[in-house]
Every structure is written in structure tokens, then in C-alpha cells.
Amino acid sequence: MFKLETGKCMRYKFLILVIFALCADTFAMELPVTGTVVSYNQKMIGPRYMGYVKNIYFDIGDEVKREDTLFEIESAEFDILKNQADLALEQAEAIVDIYRTRMRSIKREKSLMKSRGMVNSSDFENLDMTADNVVAGLASARVLVKNAAEKIKQISTITGYLEVKAPNDGIIVEKRIRVGDLVAPGMLSMIIVDLSHLQIEAQIAESDLAYVKQYQRVKITIPSLKHETYGVIKSIVPSANPMAHTFKIIVDFNKRNHMVFPGMYAKILINIDEKK
Q: 50 with 69: CB under 8 angstroms?
């Protein structure tokens, strides 16, 4: 009786060991890695020139399109420069009109003198010299007009920078300015995130790096949404964390869910090669 029970126990132990080995082998075929959803098209928005915020047209959470005006800056300095450029153009054009009027007057006088047979007189020669001077002055005045027009164009371009526009489609996730604030070049004003271009960043242990390869297909789960999909390892960043001895991997994935946002927790299951 004792021998029989001992044999049954041995068989049960053997079955338990087999089941444990199979389960261990099953779990060993997939390497679990945790990661975070990120947007690789995130833009830091700031002004190019100093000034006071005049208007803000969008707030946190608002969706924007490319070339939408996010906010405007008012600057008295650029208004003065624009007025000066406009005045310089008006003055140059007035000088051109004066020279043109003088040239028409000289042509009429020369025609009158020719009709009277005074072609060889000293007065006719003086008119020729005056005409040459007027032509030179007209050419100089036209250069002034051209320079003034270029200056206005330049000022208009700079003035356009006072309207800060969205560089791409996205959602505003951060806003650090209010109407009346003084802003300066390099100052972070807004952050725009493009939700149509999401990736997953994860850290993988150096000891597990042998199981990972570029363009490898992986399973992805977003636990908070109970959302499952597939992705591909886009790149393995060749720069280890010296403290944790981990490497960063970047995974492209098909989100297939409009509720997936940057910052969400994600699980990645990487298939392990049996030979390895």
C-alpha cells in the first residue's frame, strides 16, 4: 500500500514538473518590457522678438492647424520702423516725380529750340548738360525707391513674426503666457503635440539586448484602455544608461484608438528566438 502511494506521488511530482517546465518555457518565449507613449513631433513654441503679448487665440487642450495664429505680440519699436520705411519710400518716389517732370520740361524746351533753328546755340548745349544731370539724378532716385521698397518688405516680414503661428497640426498641451506678459526670444510660450505621430519609448536591460533587433514585430498593450495592437522596433539607441545599464528602444505602432495620448503606460512583449 505504501509503495503504491509512493508511486502515485512520484507520478504527480513528475506531472507537476512537466507542467512547470512547459509554463516556464512558454513565458520564456516572450520578454516583457514596460514603456511610455511619446510624441516624436512635439514643438516648443516661442517668439522671435521681444514685446508684450497682445492677443492669445488658443488655450490648453485646443486643437490647432498649421499656420494658425497662436498669439500676437505688440511692439512700438517695429511700428516706428515701419512708419520710417513708409516715409522714406514716399520721399524717394517724390524725388523721382520731380526728376521726371524736369526731364519732360527739358524735352519740351529742346523741341521748341529745334523748331526755331537754335540747335547750335549755347542754350541748347546747356539744356543737353542739364538733361544728362537729370538722367543721372533720376537713376539715383530710382535706386532710393528700390532700397526703400526692400526696407518696407523687410520690415513687413519682421512684423509678420509678431504673429506667432503653429508650425504643424496638433494639440496645445502647455501654455505659459497671458495677455500683457513681456516675452523675449528663446522664451518657451506654448507646447504643441502631434497626436497622429506617436511612438513608445522603453528601456531594455543590457543582458536582454541579445533578444532585440531592429524592425522586429512586437505586441503592445495599453493597460489603462485595455487596448492591444502591434508595433515594430524602429531603433535601438546605441547609448547605454551607465547607472542602470539599460538601452532605449523606440517602437512605432498602430494606435487604432483616438484615446491613446502621450505619457500613457504601455507594455511591450518581445518574442525571443529559441536558439538564443
A: no
Structural domain boundaries enclosing 199:
29-73+165-276
Same domain, 231 and 101: no
3-state secondary structure (DSSP) of residue 128: helix
Residues found in the chain: 276
Residues 95, 103 contacting (CB under 8 angstroms): no
Query: Per-residue pLDDT tens for 3-40?
Result: 444 555 666 665 565 555 555 444 447 889 999 999 88
Cβ contact 82:160 at 8 Å: no
Please check whether residue 22 lies inside any domain of the structure: no
List the CATH number of the domain containing 178: 2.40.30.170
- Are 190 and 275 contained in the same domain? yes
Record the pTM: 0.58
Contact 192, 173 (CB under 8 A): yes
Report the distance separating Cα 179 and Cα 200, nearest Å.
36
**What whole-number distance in Å separates Cα of residue 101 and Cα of residue 45?**
53
Residues 163/53, Cβ–Cβ less than 8 Å: no
Please state whether beta strands 227-236 and 246-253 pair in parallel, antiparallel, or not at all (unpaired).
Answer: antiparallel
pLDDT in tens, 222-237: 999 999 999 999 999 8
Residue 83 lies in a domain: yes
Number of compact structural domains in the chain:
2
Same domain, 256 and 198: yes
Residue 83 pLDDT greater than 90, yes or no: no
